[in-house]
Amino acid sequence: MHPRSCFATPPDLKLLAQAFPDLRPLYACLLIDGSYLDYNDPNALRAVTRCYFKHFFGLTVAIPVDRLCPTLGNRLNYVLWLEDLVSETRLDDKPVVGLDVGTGATAVYPLLTIAQNKQWRMLATESDQRSFEAARDNLKQNSLSERIILLKADVDAPILLQHNAVISQPLNFVMCNPPFYTDEEEIATSAKLKGGAKSAAFIGSPSEMITPGGEVAFTLRLFEESKALQKRIQWYTTMLGKLSSVEQLVGHLRSAGINNYVLHELTQGKTRRWVVGWSFAPQR
User: Where do the annotations place S-adenosyl-L-methionine binding (predicted)?
Assistant: First the structure.
């Protein structure tokens, strides 16, 4: 867990429930040392996530019932890691501009990024129409439509090169949390390995959870496009959900002659994720 994370000390849900009445009926049981929420209950997961958005970041966020509910802890870890990366390798003092690929219904990464960094700006792409509309509404609700520019993406077009707003200006970074899975069968297998029944973490649209070839294939597409854009974007980064994916991607970067890359493990509770970034610029 990142040391600057507001989740470094677990939130006191019992206290938060006093300020956020939506949490009160969702307790599965009360323990002597605090309260326990059933995170396999999608209603509970959405309620506590809305509470965290508001309490820690001052954001009012709607989470559609048929779209992924983001776990804010590991998303924030990614954002804070990017803050460190940008700070250590920044080329000038111009305002930082980043891009989130596949922002989802909550636009979680741009919202957290802007909440943490008042002078930064973000671009965000989304191909799914329902998620695009929900993200647009969340940006409007928080008066952030000018600082976070939402772009409608075509899933069959290039990831980056289809957007004039992306290729027409220098960017400090790209961030991405691609779908982990190749198909429904892989999702079912993963759910069984994690305890059998499908949990709230597996509730989402196919576009959020599945991509041909899984996260490795998606990231390799991103890498191929990065070779065309080169230094126009300083850092190309992605979050990965499988250690095997990390090994494949790092091997590919090395074989392609990329020696300026970064690898970092993000840990939140029992959840492990990895971020990999590469750059064509010399700063490291």
Answer: 75, 102, 126, 177
What values do phi and psi take at 240, rounded to 5? -125, 145
The answer to the question of whether 102 is labelled as a binding residue is: yes
62 is a domain residue: no
Q: In this structure, is residue 47 part of a structural domain?
A: no
Residue-wise pLDDT for 148-182, tens only, equals: 999 999 999 999 999 999 999 999 999 999 886 67
Contact between 221 and 174 (Cβ < 8 Å)? no
Higher pLDDT, 189 or 97: 97
126 belongs to an annotated ligand binding site: yes
Domain-located, residue 157: yes
Q: Is 186 exposed, middle or buried (0-12, 13-18, 19+ CB in 10 A)?
A: middle
- Report, as an integer, the average pLDDT of 23-51: 70
d(CA 88, CA 91): 9
The token duo for 133 is 């509309």
Of the pLDDT bands very low, low, confident and very high (cuts 50, 70, 90), residue 33 is: very low
Query: Residue 86 domain-assigned?
Result: yes
Residue 229 and residue 167 in contact, taking contact as beta carbons nearer than 8 Å: yes
Total domain count for the chain? 1
What SS3 state is found at 239? strand
259 is in an annotated binding site: no
pLDDT attached to residue 31: 43
CATH number at residue 199: 3.40.50.150
- Cβ neighbours around 138 below 10 Å, total: 27
Please tell me whether residue 109 adopts helix, strand or coil conformation: helix
Residue 26 has pLDDT above 60, yes or no: yes
Which DSSP state fits 96? P
107/211: higher pLDDT? 107
